Amino acid sequence: MTAPETAAETVRLRLSVSYDGTDFHGWAPQPSSRTVAGEVRTALEHLFGPPATFVVAGRTDAGVHAVGQVCHADVDAARWAAQDGERKVLWRLRGILPPDVRVTAVAPIDRAFDARFSALARHYEYRISDATWGVEPLWRRDTLAWNRPLDVAEMARAAATLLGEHDFAAFCKKREGATTIRALSRLDVSRAADGRIVVAVSADAFCHSMVRSLVGALLAVGDGRREADWPVRLLSRTERSSEVVVAPAHGLTLVRVDYPADAAGWVARDETTRRVRTLER
């Protein structure tokens, strides 16, 4: 928590961020590597000085993209007021940030808002091309080229069996003290008008590498190496399955993060998110 005297001197900003993850070592700051958080935080420092807090909705891995990332930062209130409005701040951030990361919206917000713990759902899309000739050159950074034809109907059938709240330990890189129980609300597989296959994935939260592992399992079903009931059978595992290959990062994009509409909802959601989840039997 921010101390009262510090809170009185700062304003909380909500930022929407988009980035091409190709040349980043993920979101999270690293002392010797280029990261999205490092670039955005440095840009904020140019305008407001070091943020008192800087929190993101979800840390994306190296190579993963975003068009709907959300973060919040507590910055010097006087320096915010001196910027002469949100449009001016966006214009100045445009000039500071490198071309592969953009802040697309910024606005003051109540301190009850927490980009991470107030989130209701996170939505990702994974794009795949199974065209014989590969991937359109303009898609090469955000689309996986798969060298076998994929049966979209079989992938969709397998995906439907994974919906709901389960222990996804077989699909996660487990972290000390963290649960692998997640509530998967969407896992759709479809072929878009441009010919690409899109795997749309939504949940209130994901464990490490979960989305890319789910895609990896669906790819094995789609190209005929596994049956459609194989992914759901993995839910009985209590440890990560070595049979599941993690799909490459560059096909994955964070497209949206959902939040309650007001401060009361943010507080309630924060309390729910911080509880350790268990499966009711």
Describe the structure.
- The protein has 281 residues and is of the alpha+beta class.
- It folds into two domains: 4-118 and 260-273, Pseudouridine synthase I, catalytic domain, N-terminal subdomain (Alpha-Beta Plaits, 2-Layer Sandwich); 121-255, Pseudouridine synthase I, catalytic domain, C-terminal subdomain (Alpha-Beta Plaits).
- It contains eight helices and ten strands.
- Strands 1, 2, 3, 4, 5, 6, 7, 8, 9 and 10 form a ten-stranded mixed sheet that branches.
- It is globular, with a radius of gyration of 20 Å.
- The two termini are 35 Å apart.
Which regions contain 5 or more consecutive residues with pLDDT less than 50?
A: 1-5
Helix and strand string, N-terminal first? HEHEEHHEEEHEEEHHEH
Largest sheet: 10 strands, mixed
Q: Count the E strands.
A: 10
Q: How large a portion of the residues is in β-strands, by DSSP E?
A: 25-35%
Defining key terms:
single chain, 10-stranded mixed β-sheet, PsdUridine_synth_TruA_C, 25% helix, 281 residues, Alpha-Beta Plaits, alpha+beta, globular, PsdUridine_synth_cat_dom_sf, 2 domains, 8 helices, TruA/RsuA/RluB/E/F_N
Short description:
This protein is of the alpha+beta class and 281 residues long. Helices cover 25% and strands 26% of the residues.
Task: Show the helix and strand layout.
Layout: H1 4-7, E1 10-19, H2 36-48, E2 53-56, E3 65-76, H3 77-81, H4 86-96, E4 101-108, E5 121-129, E6 144-145, H5 152-160, E7 164-167, E8 181-191, E9 197-203, H6 210-222, H7 230-233, E10 252-258, H8 263-273
Parallel strand pairs: 3-10, 5-6
Antiparallel strand pairs: 1-3, 1-4, 2-3, 5-9, 5-10, 7-8, 8-9
Family: Belongs to the tRNA pseudouridine synthase TruA family.
Protein name: tRNA pseudouridine synthase A
Pfam family, one: PseudoU_synth_1
